[in-house]
Amino acid sequence: MSMSMATSNHTLFLHNPTNLTNTTNLFPITTTRTATTTFKPISIKCTATTRTQAPPQASTQSQDRVFNFAAGPATLPENVLLKAQSELYNWRGSGMSVMEMSHRGKEFLSIIQKAESDLRTLLNIPSEYSVLFLQGGATTQFAAIPLNLCTPQDTVDYVVTGSWSDKAFKEAQKYCKPKVIWSGKSEKYTKIPSFSGLNQSTDARYLHICANETIHGVEFKDYPTPKNGVLVADMSSNFCSKPVDVSRFGLIYAGAQKNVGPSGVTIVIIRKDLIGNAQGLTPVMLDYKIHDENNSLYNTPPCYGIYMCGLVFEDLVEQGGLKEVEKKNKKKAEILYNAIDDSKGFFRCPVDKSVRSLMNVPFTLEKAELEVEFIKEAAKEKMVQLKGHRSVGGMRASIYNAMPLAGVEKLVAFMKDFQARHA
Ligand code: PMP
């Protein structure tokens, strides 16, 4: 028996979202609902007409979207959002949204397995590494890493290149004996140290780095080799932005909400022999062994977020993999840094040129009093979230994988125009 039909073009029955007329629904409902449903139809008078046109083409920036330069949560690929939209109500004929699925059902298992498999393809992850989809953000990993990789008496080394590695170091102090072997604080976190000058501890269980400092915009272009133990990297803000030789690391971790999905998913890639030595007081949710043995399904995982990450991974594979993605990222960063460097000091990026981030571009205005105006005018032009982090001020343009070249070109054109009017 069919469900109630709207009596007017301007009336939506919320219990029957098919009336929202997504004419491009790729996976139409295959199950029939009985009429025993008890919820009452709620009618809403709408002035807008129901959308009947096809969703905008993924290759162009849709009219009603902005260029979002936020540091995270950040912009996602339009085609991924549109695919998620088309699958939201009824995932591939299952009769359910991914949000409604059992995390142990065959549908979700296929989603998480495909996500892992595509991520393995992208980063060429060796078989002796496990991939875990966790919760709690990268901040939770600041504690989980020392809890899993060392005893309270163990020494570990931290390279502090910005606020995030500093936070990681401070959290580790609760669980082991971390040492800051280099800090860029006195130079306002504008540098990455030379590896030969690093005074590594001979007995360190691991060497921790933040591969890309989201706030300060410094990025490791190569990685140090630990004297002892393994290399551990926070890749939250440059994860999947370029190829990485995973075999050089004991553990890589990243929050998803910059390059690969929504917030709520944290990815850990860990060499299997490092699993299984958690300190006794480690909460079960922070024990890698528990998550590894249960294929990230020990408890209810962030199912929808993992699904979204899976769509992003699929998209990155379709783009030709991370080599291709890196080329695009280099091009975007190059035109933005060139605009800053060619502005005769009107705009300035404080970061050492050799270690400038391809993802987060901080810059200041020579006339600092114009910064508020710059951000306001940019927003009017649909370029948003350009304000620098509250701890450093100035501006910051985050240009992750999903920021189209057109977005950076528009920003650069705006910067030139702004300079012409205010120099
Ligand atoms: N590390 C880096 C490099 C980050 O950019 C962030 C978030 N901006 C974090 C750690 C903390 O991540 P979360 O908010 O997911 O805990």
Kindly report the average pLDDT value.
Answer: 89
What is the β-strand count?
16
Query: What is the overall silhouette?
Result: globular
Name the bound molecules.
4'-deoxy-4'-aminopyridoxal-5'-phosphate
Please write the CATH class name of the largest domain. Answer: Alpha Beta
Uncertain runs with pLDDT below 50, 5 residues or more?
Answer: 1-56
Number of continuous helical runs: 9
The secondary-structure element order is EEEHHEHEHEEEEEEEHHHEEHEEH
Number of domains: 2
Helix content: 25-40%
Question: Structural class of the helix and strand makeup?
Answer: alpha/beta
In what range is the share of β-strand residues? 15-25%
Q: What is the CA-CA span between the terminal residues? A: 69 Å
Sheet with the most strands, sense and barrel status: 7 strands, mixed
Could you please say which CATH topology of the largest domain applies here? Aspartate Aminotransferase, domain 2
The CATH superfamily of the largest domain bears the name Type I PLP-dependent aspartate aminotransferase-like (Major domain)
Radius of gyration from CA coordinates? 24 Å
The CATH architecture classification of the largest domain is: 3-Layer(aba) Sandwich
Strand order of the largest sheet: 4-12-11-10-7-5-6
Protein model, in words:
The protein has 423 residues and is an alpha/beta fold. It has 2 domains: 79-319, Aspartate Aminotransferase, domain 2, CATH 3.40.640; 321-421, Aspartate Aminotransferase, domain 1. It has helices spanning 78-87, 106-123, 137-149, 163-172, 288-293, 303-318, 322-341, 371-380, 405-422, and strands at 11-13, 43-45, 67-68, 129-134, 155-160, 177-183, 206-210, 212-213, 218-219, 230-234, 251-255, 266-271, 347-348, 360-365, 383-384, 395-398. The strands form 5 sheets. It has a 7-stranded mixed sheet with strand order 4-12-11-10-7-5-6. Strands 13-14-16 form a 3-stranded antiparallel sheet, with helices on one face. It is globular, with a radius of gyration of 24 Å. The protein starts with 10 loop residues before the first strand and ends with a helix. The model is unreliable at 1-56 (pLDDT under 50).
